[in-house]
Amino acid sequence: MRYFIGNWKMFGVPKSINILRKINSFCSKDKNRKKYRVIITPPYTLIETYSKYFQNKRIAIGSQNCYQKDQFSSNTAAVSPFMIKNVGAKFTLVGHSDNRAEGDTDKMLKDKVSYALKNNLKVVFCIGENKLEKKRKKTFAVLKNQLKKVLDKKFNQNNIIVAYEPIWSIGTGKIPSSVELKKTIIHIKKQLKKIFRKKKTLPVLYGGSVDGNNVKMFKEIREIDGFLIGGASKSSKKFIDIIKNYYR
Ligand code: PGA
After folding, report:
1. Is 209 in the pocket of ligand 1 (CB under 6 A)?
2. Which pTM was predicted?
């Protein structure tokens, strides 16, 4: 199974649903449709209406983040996994570099993953090194640490997907070389096997400037189980092109 996950970030109003209706209609006719899942993470404000609309259709809705507590509490503007689940989301991203940069710590991320799983949300856990760490050849150590500090053997690994997003690649048009990326994905899968002490590994996605052109290179790396797509997910044509070119 492959995953094409669109992360809308701070984009979208109710009528933006038209973008997703086009993606949905492509996916419902696509001959490859059984081979992949499409998940879109709009802002919190749109989760309920979009989830209702796409119930029993080809697109699953998720949230971009969640608060590190279970149900209700006195935290102004916070939205808990319980609240997200109750408006129809099936997934949540955790640990996107935007949110790490705003102060999400490993401890907070661990609580987010734990409460999201408890509320039956599937978690897309994001990791990635920054430019300086890459330059200093610290990538493998950074990724290992990010995984180890947050993922716990006790978590149900069937409900976790990992997304590798090098920070220097997000929104920049820069992507890792194919040799480098293959090695990194293999490294991540190895670390995951160690953490969960299981033979079967979790799906590992790539994210960072994915588009309809470079996806042809990424598809050669069979260790990549799918993509987390930012910019290109705000256009139905660009998003559909990624899927089309992946299976071409
Ligand atoms: P991008 O964003 O595709 O625009 O680089 C990816 C992400 O932040 O998830």
Report:
1. yes
2. 0.98
